[in-house]
Amino acid sequence: MDTNRLETQVLHQLDDYRNLLIAFSGGLDSTVLLHLLVQLRQRQQKFHLRAVHVHHGLSSGADRWMDHCRRQCAVWQVPIIVQSIQVDDHIGDGGIEAAARAARYAAFSETLKADESLIVAQHLDDQSETFLLALKRGSGPSGLSSMAACRHLSNNILLRPLLGCSRRQIKVYAQKYKLSWIEDKSNYDPRFDRNFLRLQVLPLLNKRWPHFISSVARSASLCAEQEELLDELLVDQLHTLLSKNNALEIEGLRRCSLACRFALLRRWIALHNVTMPSRNQLVHLWNEVALSCLDASPVIQLGNYQIRRFQGLLYLLPLMAKLHGICLYWSRTEPLTLPDGLGQIISGKEGFYLRAPKVSQKVSIRFGAKGNIRIIGRVHSRPIKKLWQEFIVPPWMRHRIPLIYYDEQLIAALGVFICEEGRVLKKEPPWLVHWDQNHDLKKKC
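The structure assignment produced for this chain is given below.
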């Protein structure tokens, strides 16, 4: 493939996209891709380009790489955003490579505008490495289908226009245009699985079978076709098992065969763009979460997400911050932003009718309460645990419902109940309080 054909291929794959955010590490692959896009932009004037560089801080050269990317983008007149991240110290099964990848994509999602598509420089050799890593993990067709040239990334699109190009072809392009790029020494450390494959395994395979990476890409494509077919066959059945908030009905899964049940679970998890679990994790999910005792609160963690069961349904949720002990004092003159993406509390609009606080009383928002509580319309008080159960509040939300206090007196659990102490008194104007849960698009409730 000559350089003109490389440009033509990239242009063809990006034909329907105009606003692009390129993941720019400064390495060979992303440098070639950015240069290609700049050339196409100059000739066709149809691309709006931005770049994002993720500063991991994992290498002593990270600051130098960041400066290189900024200089290069300045020369090519491409706006660049630098996102500094910290890789989670709690490393899961995928090791530091998987943790760093998850942190990168979180940074990409944060940077993307609503009308932008993320474009990354993964290529044919990367596809082979991904396929072999999935094979090592014992993945099924979904994992072996490896990387798609186009897929959804939350509400945006992720594009891989170099997926049909080999590393050798990309290097030929870079040499033709005399490009400069960063060489990350960690890419030559065989302790990392991907590097081991790239440095020691694939050269042997390619020497024996020169078309090996193309054959792997074809196998990955065939696996992807099988997955697409299963998607088509199962989509109606999956939707019959979904509740209005995308929770999954357990009883409906019970009636399925084992193979069908696991296929439905995988597609349900894929709806949330969560890393696909292994078969062992699916078995654990079904036996220990879905089929656990009715009075249990089982949970399984998948990366930065968790799956819980409640009222005969499975819920897939982000990990949630612990809010116990937080106390937010509120003047009521401005909306109060709640922690961990829970939205805002707004005074004077629609919502709950409460007794207005006295001038001397301080209003605060807290999370989690204990003891017995008497709510409006009841003669006797009840333990708050029983109230949560009565109002069908899931266990994970019981410490995330905003509780309004006047001084040390609980007045209301917003959206759930009002205490007798919050009853609106006769001949006094009520105070309206609204919980806007949609204010923060990243809410975790």
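Interim note for the steering committee: Confidence is low (pLDDT under 50) at residues 440-445. The longest strand covers residues 344-354.
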